[in-house]
Records
---
Amino acid sequence: MSDQKVEKNKVVSVEYTLRLDSGEVIDENPGDPIVYLHGAGQLIPGLEKGMEGMSIGEEKDIVVPPTEAYGEFDENAIQEIPRSAFGDNPIEVGMKFYADFGDGNSVPFYIKEVGEESVVVDFNHPLAGQTLHFHVKIVGIRDATAEEIDHGHVHQ
Ligand code: ZN
């Protein structure tokens, strides 16, 4: 129904453009909206909060500080590890790997520098420390099914 608002347990379709402070567009999806379950933590907190209460067809600029997005940049999250830890795998700057700490959680990290003997890796999210500037347009809202709410995601 057209009087639907973005709120918890709604399935929301949204088109967005994402810019950095510099104005550089790093992501956009015109004509190909993401469809997500609102209130289930699928999007970064600041973006969900900013879209709360919007209606279909409405557009809005939402500025999200790092603490509501991918966190502050942490110098301690940059570490040097032996090249041998990667075995014979080819490694290049910018590649993404997952560290398995044996507790069932794997943590992504990125290759920052590759040396002969050692590799500098970065556990920060690539957008850590960045203020994100979204322009969003709500293109669809519907009630989530009981099963979707139970699962915490959208069934298409
Ligand atoms: Zn499911």
---
Amino acid sequence: MIKVQGLSKIYGEHIAVDDISFEVKEGHIYGFLGPNGAGKSTTMNIITGYISPSAGTVEVNGFVMGKDTLKAKKSIGYLPEIPPLYPDMNVKEYLTFVAKIKGVDKDKRAGEIERVMKATDIEDMAGRLIKHLSKGYKQRVGIAQAILGSPKVIILDEPTVGLDPEQIIEVRNLIKSLKGEHTVILSSHILSEISATCDEVLVIANGRMVACDTTENLLKNHKNVKTIKINVKGAKDKIEEVLNNIESLEEVKFIEDKGESCLFEVTCEAAKDVREDISFALSDARLLILEMSEETSSLEDIYLTLVKEADEAYEAELKAIREGADLDEVFADKDEAENEETEDTADTAEETLEESDSDSKEE
Ligand code: ADP
Ligand code: MG
């Protein structure tokens, strides 16, 4: 339904979106997840045809943006970061205005406006001026205008931002109800927001796509580590020695001396059950386990790791450029960004960096 290929957007010297490609299947809900400034809104603005990319192509519902732009745009309902509302219109006037712009047939307009007001639960607000609506209701009007005309694709940029918990649940349910009939992309910088509504998640950091998968697969495929907390009766050194000799453990960390006992934290592969190894080893040494609890790394941990890895890779590239590495080399193989070859010190590269540095500080 949506095909994005090699999308990039460069603002001056700053790369806001860096070579992103993905496909969105019909009827699915996709989530763009990433920290503030990651490039989510820019990507959405390009997909919806609001801004043009520096490179790459977007195809929506079979229409290529920039070629069949009008048809592509007609297939999309969009709620931008700041909803395009007219404060001096009342809700019904505004939706009538949107229906006209979207080319909804005159005899179908009233029915369509009723439908979207019902779907977003704003019927009671029909005659209210938009400027007098609460943030939650404004957001619902924003969603109502996005789904008006029943476009195949609905794109919602941070649809629950600034809403109270009750409103968040309502908006989430509304989004879920769009599934099937519509293909939906929504963005958020909050993981729970994405995992609550989306089938698939696309993680963006520093303008790059660092993961694109179902939440289950992310959990399954990512190097998943389990942490086990063990409280053992006895002396620190003796316990530590025993734990260090257990092969299935990856890391053994002393946490706290509790007087009679010591608290340790050990890690191992999530798929392994090491509880027997631990209890047999400790009991062989006549050490008593008082408590043992395990925690598998959550989606949140995986997300944070992905973003951290992306940040580190980005920083390494910046460092390499700063130290004068050939730009082509740096970007040809991002994994080898630490390459410190200092041939060909390009002044322009350094200038570029200083500028983009000050850009990022402004945020
Ligand atoms: P997100 O929506 O993930 O928070 P954005 O797409 O808004 O991120 O921004 C990505 C990056 O592009 C940021 O560093 C932002 O400062 C920069 N950016 C966005 N729009 C512009 C613009 N019009 N001019 C210059 N830089 C921009
Ligand atoms: Mg944004």
---
Amino acid sequence: MSESIKDLLNGNVSWVNNTLRHTPDFFNKLATGQSPKFLWIGCADSRVPATEITNALPGSIFVQRNIANIVVHTDSNLLSVVNYAVKVLKVKHIIVCGHYGCGGVQAAMSNDNFGFLDNWLMHIKDVYRMHKSELDSIDDEGKRMDRYVELNIIEQVNNLAAVSFIQEEWDDGEFPHIHGWVYSLKDGLLRDLDVSINSHDELDQVYQYKKK
Ligand code: CO
């Protein structure tokens, strides 16, 4: 594990050398542009890096990460990334990837005060309120937390599907498909929650925009 800032810079040089040894034209090719097929919305947690855990190379995944992989409709940073990804890059798949043991979800499940962060955690608390009866019925705290992580991912998939310009893309064709995945820190495996949304019709009618 890199411990000092110099380790990171030295690590970069090693990575460049290794990469060039295996693929001499790697950087020449990447420098001409990107055409990733995937947008990844994940947690900022340092243990869940999109490309490493999917064995994907630079250039394959457009990435946005924040605490607890939240999609908020007033987050212009996230919306700009999503807009560019679907309108310009024309990504085919958007993956919302959460992870068990997520500190953000754990914090939201507690009644502790986290100062400034409480404003962000509020969005995760909203998910608890929406699914209160299901979550309250799970006695085991670890299992309740795991389910809360999953429900948070599902709600963020729904939030993405509600974005007007994503629905516009569906008017023109079949993409993007929005997927919900959960990652386990314990074994390194990703699991598809099978909650993908690919059209207006799969969305609560309240959020459906008229087709143009
Ligand atoms: Co997390």
